[in-house]
Amino acid sequence: MDYPESYELVFQAAAVEDDVVIVRRTDRAGAGGYPIYEDESGIVRAEISDRAEVRMLASGGHQVLLAPTMARPLSGPGPR
């Protein structure tokens, strides 16, 4: 299956504009078998299904994982 190379994850922020984080596909897969995406820092990591269902993944201790309100594909499928 082909998956987008990158997504925008949109997180709702109280009383300010929504936070948007761009994540790119890695060569790893999560427990559900879908690709793991991460931002440039490697701190924001998520497994994103073929239906844009997002499961946030901890990248370190003591993280509070919030689910994004939306995942928007930014680019088309790349080679697999």
H and E order: EEEEEE
Please list the strands of the largest sheet in the order they lie side by side.
5-4-3-2-1-6
Task: Tell me the total number of β-strands.
Answer: 6
Radius of gyration: 12 Å
Instruction: Report the end-to-end length measured between terminal Cα atoms.
Output: 8 Å
Query: Beta fraction of the residues?
Result: 35-45%
- What share of the residues lie within helices? under 10%
- In one word, what is the shape? globular
Q: Outline the biggest β-sheet.
A: 6 strands, antiparallel
Indicate the low-confidence ranges by residue numbers.
none
Average residue-wise pLDDT: 90
**Secondary structure category:** mainly beta
SS field, number of helical segments = 0
Helices and strands, with pairings:
Blueprint: E1 6-11, E2 19-29, E3 35-38, E4 45-48, E5 54-57, E6 70-73
Antiparallel strand pairs: 1-2, 1-6, 2-3, 3-4, 4-5
Description:
This protein is mainly beta. The chain contains no helices and 6 strands. A 6-stranded antiparallel sheet has the order 5-4-3-2-1-6, with no helix packed on it. The model has no long low-confidence stretch (mean pLDDT 90).
